[in-house]
């Protein structure tokens, strides 16, 4: 049995999707990020960085894994699925996984902060992060022009990138001119395990669309978290 410490974010949903795809039994432990439950001593003992997701494998002497990419690799290697075992195939998957970890996630995450949450709108900063997110989308679209999936068969590389790409509207990034990326997004969204995974846990707001009252409340809660983080940073020596 695996304990999954998570919340309804793209990074959290990566791991719940993988667990559903692999059919591994797990217990969902949802943390309230607005209440800083991810900063409690109990959770910091699992992840010293105080971020979700993290997992504890009860069948492996309560072995803890943090960072979403590390969780995906651990689950793939534990089961021998969603990542090839040969060196070249494994490397291809890891390359596209790192592409998301170092590019798609950070750029879309910063686009979210400055487009949605930051109290002051700074157009040049918003353009920077939305523009770089769109550039990375074009890279994905180019790879998917001649490939059904990013790295051969469906893998953790697809899961990790899809969990973020599906929320492109929330980041203010369009993909209307990227047909191969849209085809891939829709094909993965149709997978039953993926549909189950993005409900573990369900989000309070649909980050794939925009404009409703729930989205506004979500953005306001996130803005308060950003402002709190700024205040805490300013208080540090």
Structure in a nutshell:
The chain has helices spanning 10-22, 41-44, 68-79, 87-117, 123-145, 156-165, 179-189, 192-197, 213-235; strands at 2-6, 26-30, 54-57, 63-66.
The gyration radius over C-alpha positions equals: 18 Å
Estimate what percentage of residues fall within beta strands.
5-15%
**Strand adjacency order, main sheet:** 2-1-3-4
Largest sheet: 4 strands, mixed
Domain GST N-terminal: 1-83
Organism: Hydrogenophaga taeniospiralis CCUG 15921
Protein name: Glutathione S-transferase domain-containing protein
Domain GST C-terminal: 86-205
Textual characterization of the structure:
This protein is of the alpha+beta class and 237 residues long. Helix content is 56%, strand content 8%. It is built from nine helices and four strands, in the order βαβαββααααααα. Strands 2-1-3-4 form a four-stranded mixed sheet, with helices on one face. α1 links the parallel β1 and β2. α1 runs parallel beside α3. The longest helix has 31 residues. It is globular and about 50 Å long. The termini are far apart. 37% of the residues are buried. This is Glutathione S-transferase domain-containing protein.
């Amino acid at each position: 049995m695996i304990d999954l410490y998570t919340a309804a974010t793209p990074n959290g949903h990566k791991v719940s999707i993988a667990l559903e795809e692999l059919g591994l039994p797990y217990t969902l432990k949802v943390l309230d990020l607005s209440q800083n439950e991810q900063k409690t001593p109990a959770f910091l003992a699992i992840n010293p960085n105080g971020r979700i997701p993290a997992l504890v494998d009860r069948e492996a002497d309560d072995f803890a894994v943090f960072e979403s990419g590390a969780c995906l690799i651990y689950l793939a290697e534990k089961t021998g699925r969603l990542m090839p075992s040969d060196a070249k195939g494994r490397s291809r998957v890891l390359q596209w996984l790192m592409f998301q970890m170092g590019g798609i996630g950070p750029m879309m995450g910063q686009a979210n902060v400055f487009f949605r949450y930051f109290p002051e709108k700074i157009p040049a900063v918003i353009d920077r992060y939305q523009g770089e997110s769109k550039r990375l989308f074009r890279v994905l679209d180019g790879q998917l022009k001649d490939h059904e999936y990013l790295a051969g068969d469906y893998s953790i590389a697809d899961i990790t990138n899809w969990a973020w790409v599906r929320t492109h509207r929330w980041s203010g990034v369009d993909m209307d001119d990227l047909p191969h990326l849209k085809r891939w997004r829709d094909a993965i969204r149709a997978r039953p395990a993926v549909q189950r995974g993005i409900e573990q846990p369900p989000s309070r707001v649909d980050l794939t669309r925009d404009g409703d009252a729930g989205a506004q409340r979500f953005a306001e809660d996130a803005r308060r978290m950003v402002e709190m983080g700024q205040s805490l940073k300013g208080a540090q020596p």
